[in-house]
Amino acid sequence: MAKTKKDPNNEPNMEDIYNGVVQPEDTSSWLRPNKAVDFRHRIENIVDHEFTEQEIDEYNITEAINNHPLAKRPTNIRSKLAYKEILGNLKPTKRYLLPGQCVVFEYLEPKFKEDLEYYDRTPFVLFLGITRTKEDTIREVGLNLHYFPPFTRARILAQTYSAFKPYFQKYFNDPSEKPNTVISYEALKHIMKTNSKIAFGIKMYIPVLRSKSYVLPTKYLSTAFYTEGHFSKATLQQIFHFWRQFK
Fold first, then answer.
1. Alpha carbons within 13 A on the beta-carbon side of 161
2. Tens of pLDDT, residues 37-52
3. What ranges make up the beta strands (E) of the chain?
4. Residues 166-186: what's their mean pLDDT?
5. Across 108-167, where does the E strand assignment appear?
6. Cα angle 17-113-135, degrees, rounded to a multiple of 5
């Protein structure tokens, strides 16, 4: 049977990406029944487990990332599975996002996409607050972690978690409902102990173009870490190259 030719202009939508309609062809080599059952059990221990106060107090996000069942999977496979866990276990919100919330969402075509060199259609963002443009329209400002290679992404998450630990501990098992009133771009720059070039990931979003927004409890951050952006006009490798060249 002849293979259907893929239309390069027909980009997959978010549901196809998350639900595996769009997927690599090499999953069968490892996702066999015995391995699949073991993987499901291990990842369910993370997303379904209700962490106790002692477990939350002893939690180390770097260890959680490094020991995650997705850690040794190929990048494209682990990203798909991470999205699947998030969408399958959390409910989306339609509210304005709050400073301090970590959110995975779908971003529709940006208003001035023709002026953008590239953009992420499925951001993983630490929100920093709301600003207004010269035209007095609202923009949500956040740090999109997909713009950073994994080693830098892990460092940003670890240092942010350490700096704002009481906030992240309070909303460990359930999504945050209150803003972090001290988090900001300036605060992030101050707490970063090395040059992570965080300005590269600071983006503004038009609220009405944001959909399927999933606010992440802290226990989901180690899973969300393994999501990757779905970039238009650039590949993931190009994005990381741009980050390295950023000054």
1. 25
2. 566 667 766 778 899 9
3. 102-107, 119-120, 124-132, 138-144, 202-205, 210-215, 231-232
4. 94
5. 119-120, 124-132, 138-144
6. 125
Residues 230, 17: contact at Cβ < 8 Å? yes
pLDDT of residue 110: 67
Give the strand pairing for 102-107 and 124-132: antiparallel
H or E segment and range at residue 217: none
Q: Identify the residue with better confidence: 73 or 10.
A: 73
Indicate the domain borders of the chain: 29-245
Give the separation between CA 210 and CA 123, rounded to whole angstroms.
10
Supply the pTM of this predicted model.
Answer: 0.82
> What gap in Å lies between CA 121 and CA 28, rounded to an integer?
27
**pLDDT of 226 over the 50 cut:** yes
Separation of alpha carbons 83 and 18, rounded Å: 6
